[in-house]
User: What shape does this take?
Amino acid sequence: MNPHDVMQQILTTAGKLGVESVAAGFTRRHERMVRFSNNSITITNSWLTETPTVYLISNKRRAACMIEEQNPNEVEGVIEQLVKTMKVTPAGDVDFTLPRGPFNYQPISGIYDRKVAEAETGLVDAVETGINAAKKEGAVRVSGVVITHTWERHVMTSAGAEGSDRGTEIETTIRAFASDEATGQGISLSTSLAKFNAEQAGISAGRIAKMSLNPEPGEAGKYNVVFAPSIFANLLNRVGDSASAYSIDLGLSFFRDLLKKKVASENFTLYDNSRMPEGPGSVALDDEGYPTQDIRLIGNGVLETYLHSSYTAAEHKAPLTGSASFEAGIAGMVPDARNLVVEAGEGSLEDLFDKAHDGLYITNNWYTRFQNYQTGDFSTICRDGVFQIKNGKLAGPVKGLRLSDNMVRILQSVKAMTKDRHWIKWWEVATPTLTPHVLVEGVGITTAKK
Amino acid sequence: MEEYARLAVDYALKLGAGYAEARVQRNLGSTYTLKNGTAEPVNVTRKLGVGIRVIVDGALGFASTNSLDKNEIRTIAESAVRTAKASVRLLATPTRLSEEKSWEDDWEAKMKVDVRKVPPEEKFEVLFTIEKSLAQENVHVSLPSRILLFDEDLTEKFYVNSDGARLHGFVPRLSLLYILTAVEPGKGTVQRIRHEAQSRGWEAVEDWKPKEIAAEEAKMMGRLLREGVPPPNGEVDFVLGSEVTGIICHESCGHPQEADRILGREAAQAGESYVNPKMIGHRIGSEQVTIIDDPTIPNSYGFYLYDDEGVKARPRTLIKEGIITDFLHNRETGAELGVVSNGASRSSSYDREPIIRMGNTYMKPGDHTRDELIAGVKSGVYMKSFMEWNIDDRRYNQRYVGLEAYLIENGKITTPVRNPILEITTPGLYGSVDAVGKELEFSGATCGKGDPMQGAPVWTGGPPIRLRQIRLGG
Assistant: This one.
């Protein structure tokens, strides 16, 4: 399908039916994946999709549709049906329009690499490199995934905005097993092949796995915890979710009523930088056609803004942040984070161990769940290498621990961060996140009782 | 749809695949939402595409497109075969599939009232009726955040494989989600997420009694805020409600007994299992514990009659009287472990490979009423529902934090208790069950697994159960 023709057809059809404002989108994706386990490839995947999206606004009513089928003849019928539905939808209470264009979109450097787009059999080589590197460090079994994403997206609105961009991404997650209970994870994430390093991911995974051999059962209590980037990125993804004005509206944010208030320690600053050069989530324009920005979400501990679409900006009487994202299955157009970036600290990992003195070093986690999204009470399972810190030095591995705490309390208890930062994105971290290692004081840890 | 699936299979065989299957799948979805009494945009999703899976020299390859153009289908068949071939050099053991009967059938979950013919305004009307039932003067608590969401998803699949299977299936899935936040000055907040879900027509909605259920939940939240006390210390007995029993069966029986996890295929993401292939016959719980996964339950959210490898679905008894008796299998794990598939292979969309999934997992009812279970407890906690839960990636160490919960004192339910925590190992949990109730109930859920993530509709269920001598977590 021709993106311009399809989007024009959406605008024309909706306009004829009397719709006031329309945002049409079109995404073309080619993704490849090689999955492996037990040192062997389990499956190769390849996906081709072209997806028009439709967002309609009229008389304080909205409707949205994702058309994941390549049949231009369907578009008119879909929009007619959507408009009929919108007309019987009860009117909302927010009067807003789409951002008035045209806009001048500044390109972002380093987000497209033809070599990633063309990589296919080379992904098998990357798998082999990662497995061998992990085994060399002491892994017995190695599992994981290598993925490439190649995308182009187009937006056209009835408010005169029109633009396109394209990008690539290559990522690997490698999980090494030195025994059934001794595991380690390594990640490499890049928009270019040149900066992708499967070998380093394998080395990290294998090294942590070997260090995790023969873990002792851990004990419940309050600990000074050094978070590795993988687990901290998982927590920050919840911070990004909570910063969305849509989460505030849903009652699913621990930042409700905390705007312009202190939500983290003074040394903690977090951005959602949609324009970061070489950023895996970087885009030049949002799905309403508004230019993206580098947004400081938390500045020196203070929550400075929520993320907004044009609807939530009007509702909250706040400026646009260029964060509108079309999402199937919920409200259609919602504000979302794209690249979460933590401002770096000054020290090394060893400095953090020294400052923690006695505590835990947790490399990874999974299964984060909330008891109450508004209060931020949650727990998550520690995995892939948990180590004691004794007298400022890394000590032996422990197992069976769960982090059970409160999200805002953790942010407010950040004590120090490393200078080095790492990009994280994997199965448990959907939004690309650039984060250092982070020391947090007094973290709640629990264990099974029987 | 059939011609596109056949084209994909025939072309892949011509390219050298030893086995090929193709699925043309259409999903039509609509979501209606009220957010704090205001209508959110109706969100419509249309997906149609073809996915092909091949085995070439023992290597598995999958490719998909959302175009039904024949050249495009040939392109993805070439891609699946080409990339599978390229992976052969890193293949430890060639993939084999268990021998299965090749079925030809048309099947569906029937709708008495076709949800497609129900006008959108009627769907909103249901949500507004619930909204009215949540008014403060009715439920005696302030609910500043109220999300009410009705979702319909109509899935049609046409499946063929090179062994001769030919299946056409249709399943309408309806669900109603409540996310409520209650506030009481000086007492904080509590949140409740409840999910009703079935594979049925519009008639399901009336059966769910949505306005009554929502009001009951809200009143409970208010009482919990006003009267709730901290959980007791020390060892107590627990009575768990159906909702909690269901999530336990799903998380610490269904998942660890998925054979792909046991064999390590999900190791890098959803993890492995404390169960190993030699544990068939191993005691993991008391004699009261029997857990079944059955995708054939009529109207169930996890309903299907044939899986996405063309295998006929059937009930699987995973734990019988405390002993591990079966795993969930697809054709790949069936062949590897020397058994046959028991029809557990499912895919969430045309563009996802089929992997092992639960259908409807539940504990078999016993012979006690809930009141009899409670009458047998001198000092304990009744945990009827939960919010927070999680489990480690070997499915051994788990935690459930109660939402609606009460103290049990001398055999009677007394005061609401806030956030009691059951944090326990899998054998510790199943070994502590001393009695099982009669009343079987199910909850709807979407189970996450696979990479890319695949959400699978499931039911989790069971009767109330009683656990002895549990130390509460914290």
